[in-house]
Protein 1
Amino acid sequence: MPIAKNLLNSFLRLLILLSCSAALGATSAGPSQSLVAATRDGQHDFDFEIGTWRTHLRRLLHPLTGSQQWVDCDGTTTVHKVWSGRANLVELEARCPAGYFEALSLRLYNPESHQWSLNFATSNSGRFGQPTTGEFRNSRGEFFDQETFNGQAVFVRFVISHVNRESCRFEQSFSSDGGKTWELNWVGVDRRVPEAELAKSGAGRSSEQERPHDFDFELGSWNIHLKRLLHPLSGSKNWVEFDGSTVTRKVWGGRSQIEEFEVNNPSAHIEGLTLRLYDPQSQQWYLYWANQKTGTLGQPTIGEFRNGRGEFFDQEPFNGRAILVRYVWSGITPNTAHFEQSFSDDGGATWEVNWITDQRRVKDEANRAERN
């Protein structure tokens, strides 16, 4: 979402993306060690942040105008591990002068580029904007992107610093001159919530507001069997099969879900996640997929449920051609579900199924408690 459309959302994004980072795993590197720094394993940079934090923000109301009018905001940020810590999901609840909001950030590490992509969404829109990308060097995290502000292209810089086990600091700055100068417009400090206070107050628990229930059936743990067509849209009938498991849990008190997915066969391993976000305005779901090998978030498939069947569509490149993609959920019972992916290269006139998943619920007390 362009910054110019909603300055408050820019603030939310900064808060959720950089609420309190972990740079304790970063190694010091001088100029002679630049190659080492460029290729270091940074997948544990955010480990320190797992847990719950109190966040205090100061926001410049009118950036790039010479204004010195600031406002304050306070909130709670909770950070959860994803893929056993190789990614993480941040949930934020806060109150500012403009009112109450919820937001989240999915942080993904790319093992090839050794950089993080920070993907942000609010519960008002249910959609991710463009990611902010960067890395840690010398225990300092810097993340950049280019956005539109008041009709002008600007660079955005997020900086994480002053990190210790109980607090940290983050800043956002804008540059309208190609990075020659930067104006600070957000300053935030996070302080960890003590365990005793967390248990007593319930801090970090998302409020139970009205929410859609379409994907409630998915909450919990499942055993899955997967069939995958090796060469879609080629006439091939060569399928491979996998077995594994998937776990889905609530985000925003159930108004979103994150699913972690892992399957194996004797020669291959697939590990991924799906983040499902609901747009209350369009009353449709946005389904985002990422896999652990690339650490990047794909474009969403968009759709809805009708009569117990969910259909979701998008257009993607495949083998150099634009094709249509369709996801279908069906056969849904309390303990089973069926999922298919299909491709079409003729505008939806015909569809070829290339991915079939059958799920059976894992029945245990922990799983039932999670669903409730």
Protein 2
Amino acid sequence: MENNLLDSGKYKRADRFSIQSSRRWIQIGFTLITLWIGVEFAIFVNQVAAGKIPAIERPPGVEAFLPISALISLKYWLTTGILNTIHPAAAVLLLIFMTMAIFLKKGFCSWVCPFGLLSEFLTGIHKKIFDRQLKLPLWLDYPLRSLKYLLLFFFLWAVLVQMNVVDLEKFIYSPYNRIADIKMLYFFTGMSAMTFWVLAILVGLSLAIPYFWCRYLCPYGALLGALSWLSPFKIQRDAVSCIDCEKCTRVCPSNIKVHSSGTVISDECHACMQCVDICPVKDTLYFALPVKRKILSRKAYALVIAGIFIGGILIARLTGFWQNSIPADEYIYHLQHMDDPEYYHNRGEVPDYDRSSFEGNRNRKK
């Protein structure tokens, strides 16, 4: 049968456009951008902490690491029509990633997220150690996969259900939220022994069990996975031309049984296209609309996902919802007082504070 397919031209030929190498370069590019943003932000914070007006602008992209602030901002925006300018980039980036999921499955996880790249790197080491990708039994895999949805439910319940407009506004403009990005930086640069060992254990688990964080614990991935059910584009399989080699299933990082699916609807599908690339028979696996086989080519997918990301940021810049509105002298004030009680929170509840005491352009000195 394979010889007949080869003679008929139905087997794939070498493709100059290697989607996996291109995907990897896109991942590396986003990771390098993330690292550069981290370096810029560290320089900005160090200068502010020294009581100086910083020589560089605070990079708004750092707000990608503030998903709770982003979720609170989105609810406040939907409720009041006001998109606040404390951490506007956080809400914008969350909207961009959600848009990707709604139209392109969980492409954010396998094309953009630096943690996705780290997970793939650790999985590569895992395969070299064990000569294959170990999988947990289904009786253990399914309960563990529910953990990330339980975490997501906790955050959605706390923000979308329990917080009213007054609570939202109080949190958004609180001293804590104003420097949540700086507290996040200090969490990593001045991590405690407990934090270090928790991160080390997570890395170890991801090395022993491929994609442990992504598959079992990441609430961001859970949100995108839930939204990906709405995606009109999905991996489709032509059962007529399929030769049942099961290569697609073996290569799938999410352990989806692609070889037995007509349409891959799983919330774990990252649209990494590894199954499409490994399939030896031309046009047997493809990313498309289920109706009339409207195929989105691998090259077009890469362009669309980049276009959504770049376009969303460009719109935010043009409309003034990218850089925040906190002036440098206010940052200096906050850094001088960040150990005060009002700069903390308890499960989203912040202490009472005098908003007028730190808002506005001023140079305060102790």
Protein 3
Amino acid sequence: MSTSSEPIAVKVYLNPDKDKELIVNENKGRAGIYRWVQIESGKSYVGSSNKLNIRFKQYFNYNHISYPKRNMTIYKSLLKHGYAKFRLEILEYCSTDKLIQREQFYFDKYNPEYNILKLAGSPLGYKHSEAAKTLISIASKNRKISESTRDLKRKTLLGKTLDKERVKKMRLSNTLRQPVLLTNSETGDIKEFSSMTDAGVFLGISRVTVSKLLLSNVLYRGYKISKAPSIYKGAAESSFNSNFIMQQPILLTNKLTGFSKEFASITKAAEYLDISRARLWYFLKNTTHTESETLKGYIISKITGTHVKAYRKSNKIEVTNIDTNEVIIYPSLTLAAEALGVNRASLSGYFAKKRTKPYKNKYILKLV
């Protein structure tokens, strides 16, 4: 393992705000050393974890980093500047028994400003002896603190007030939140909420109560609470099937005029109706007699059979293996995905986001 004076990061994420899902997925089940770098000031924070993906999920969870008792300088800086103002580096992957040793190496190398303690492995996991606890207790009881010092500490713990837009953005980026739908049992109207917390505010109850009502399937104030498909979660975690969203053609028929309009996907139809695709998906899933039930005055139905095939694009994809320089052209994304052992939605997302970085750090992908 190199200990040169100029170590090179094995991975660099230039925009963690945009690459949250990629960061978590690429570091699943891996142990190593990472560094947050505030781009404008150059200040940094060095950390380590034996489960990097779980650690990064905590960083991207607004509720976690904003909790007052987690008084970490890096958390405050992320809240103040936002993830897009930082660069995230994976300095190296290593075995768990080498974590503290390698973390200390990077402490000494970079002298990270956001790390209050410059000793690797402390205080996380450290336990004081009973004798030490007794001495700390006695010293604490005898310590006199001025009122001005107390005020200063209180302000430090509370941190700076964040503007509402930033709080909203960070809450929406929380990968652990559960979007919910409230369906009026009398009118059938559906209200969408990005989290159980927001639904609780509308109903005048706590998030915990919303969670219990969701599990028990009990009406509350005339509303049925159900999970909504989330566009922020991965395809494996979400009931919102990405292939269905991207490829299912939709027919909208105005009930009054009889005028019909076709759309190549559920997303396009939702944009035309000025609603979220989650709401349209939910309507299609839970409506059995679409001829008699309407949404915004339209009868909504799926275009099936040969019509579906006409809407689906069959793009050829060129795959170049960086390691072997082998080039293979597949007749469709589906076949390319099968050959690479990944989901088709993963390749679709790669092209939809116009990524230029090699896929899985191994393949150069090109539509032909």
